[in-house]
Amino acid sequence: MHIQGITLRELSMKLVTPFETSMDRLEVRRIILLEADVDGVTGWGECVAAEAPFYSPEYADTAWAVLRDFLWPMVKGVKFNSACEVWGLLKRVRGHNMAKACLEAAVWDAEAKQKGVPLAKLLGGTREEIVSGVSIGIKDTLHELVATVKKELAAGYQRIKIKIKPGKDLEPVQRLRQEFPRIKLMVDANSAYTLADFPRLKQLDGFYLMMIEQPLGWDDLYSHVELQKQLETPLCLDECVHTEEQARAAVELGACKIINIKLGRVGGFTMARRIHDLCQQNGIPVWCGGMLESGIGRAHNIALATLPNFSLPGDVTASKRYWAEDIISPEVTVSPQGSIRVPTKPGIGFEPRLDLIEELTVRKERLV
Predict the structure, then answer these.
(1) Which of 175, 305, 325, 330 has CB atoms 3.0–4.6 Å from 130's, for a disulfide?
(2) Does the annotation count 320 as an active-site position?
(3) Parts of the chain with a pLDDT under 70
(4) Predicted local confidence at residue 25, as pLDDT
């Protein structure tokens, strides 16, 4: 295989409703797409880096620069046998996993198209459909939160995740448990707490949550070990796990009982599969988190979530939850039972809408 050239695009896409976490409030998403020409076959990838360095040190502008100035020169003119070798070609660059994942994912898509198989099958996926949960941002009022949860449950979603932060945590969870005593419910703090908040976090044990996702520092594995010892509720790590080595440390030290695998955060499919396999061998369930992706990134997440140890509902949802109009055809839909059918066409299984992509593009660069 040989990448003959890549095209970088930055799209500006407005969310249907603002999305608020403990870190930020977002109304317009900067989406970076990468189109790779691999031996005459086009593969698509999406960089999930955010608008600012709040979730991780990476953000949209650093990802663009690293892709253009470092990652592309490392693969330009290089021949390799399969997409799983791309990670090794990029290893000299430390970090910048979201930029790496964008390039690697595009090559995986191209290879699947070359072989005439769905990307999920090329990865080793075993599911014909995946179970979908939903992530709900922080709301201004409890009334608005309850109304949103009712709407999502009616749409079929099988798990509800709400974002929390100090001062907007116990009351929302208590209210939801009163309204919906039997739903699968979890919370996500995005590193908003410290061990000093233990008394508050301990109270969450009383609401039989599926998990508490990333309550403590984004790079503080040790404190999660200490916290998990004192909580009955399983902790799930997100921001703390960027590598296979970090995943192994988290599992062996007891920092969590669940891991959220995000394609961009760990650097692409090759590393995601390694972490998946490690967790499977150690009895740690995993699920696929979301980063407010467009349809391109969403399609890659669907393929990833077909691997056998993705046993919990992920954050892969219908396109219409975030976008008035998505950039793929057909758009991603969720059944009344809360599941998404895995596409059977070669590659990611969805067609990029080139007309809409061009309309939304605010920056473009061709590299050969």
Answers:
(1) 305
(2) no
(3) none
(4) 86
Tell me which of 113, 161, 163, 257 is the catalytic residue.
163
Q: What residues are paired with 135 via a beta bridge?
A: 161
Q: Which of 262, 320, 345, 364 is catalytic?
A: 262
Nearest-angstrom CA–CA distance, 201 and 250: 20
- Predicted confidence at residue 249, as pLDDT, reads 97
Q: In terms of pTM, does the model score above 0.85? A: yes
Whether residue 198 contacts residue 187, with contact meaning beta carbons closer than 8 Å, is answered with: no
- List the alpha helices (DSSP H) in the chain: 60-66, 72-75, 86-89, 97-115, 119-123, 142-154, 170-179, 198-203, 221-230, 244-253, 263-266, 269-281, 295-304, 354-360
Active site residue 165: no
**Residue 297's closest CA among 262, 252, 342?**
262
Number of continuous H segments (helices) and E segments (strands) in the chain: 14, 15
User: Strand runs (DSSP E) across 2-48, as ranges?
Assistant: 3-20, 25-38, 41-47
CATH topology of domain 3-116+355-367: Enolase-like; domain 1 (3.30.390)
Every domain of the chain and the residues it spans: 3-116+355-367, 122-341
Amino acid 21: pLDDT? 86
Structurally, at CATH architecture level, domain 122-341 sits in Alpha-Beta Barrel (3.20)
Cα separation, 33 vs 10, in Å, equals: 6
